[in-house]
């Protein structure tokens, strides 16, 4: 979009060594291609509820992580919530589901395989390039594309605000110590404070964007979003990975369809 700062000068750009060499080739691809590939995998995994299909896709995505340029710290922060989400979903399905442990593992793996590609695509892409790709390549209306750009720009700010809230409460003596229940209570209290700040920041940003006429008509772009052969290969690779996952599951006799 117009008025883009360089990634090196923007402190809110994700810490990804973009185009630092051929090793991190995934970071240099068009964000629209990465999001489209993630969408293909997510929609393709909806009918399959077995662990083999989702596990094959998940392994394929994990093999691409070293080429995404995402540092270890970001990877841990990114993977922690998804791992917790998968484990909790698997536990709930194991306790209350009808398919036992096998069904619980399938749900957990499938959830991770659906969520992780989109997260990797978002973190390994520059927010401005993502908005450009959405508008110019995927023909997304500019208003929601601007919303995506604003949301990606706000993620580092929310992380800083979380640290600020934590330090402020610690300075007031609000610490859990070794009491686990108090730790949970303080966590949700900080989460509510962060939610309030996020709503306020989002309201101010929406008002400022409306005042500048974002989304009211056609806009010019500071640069062209290029679609290369490698971007097409990534989308085709996602389709082939999905086909390989279904083929492997079918041959092993483990394929279970949601609507079967």
TrEMBL record:
This is Energy-coupling factor transport system permease protein. It is found in: Membrane. It is a multi-pass membrane protein. It comes from Nocardiopsis algeriensis. It comes from the Bacteria. Pfam families: CbiQ (PF02361). The chain crosses the membrane at residues 35-63, 75-97, 103-123, 233-259. GO terms for cellular component: plasma membrane. Keywords: Membrane, Transmembrane, Transmembrane helix. Its main location: membrane.
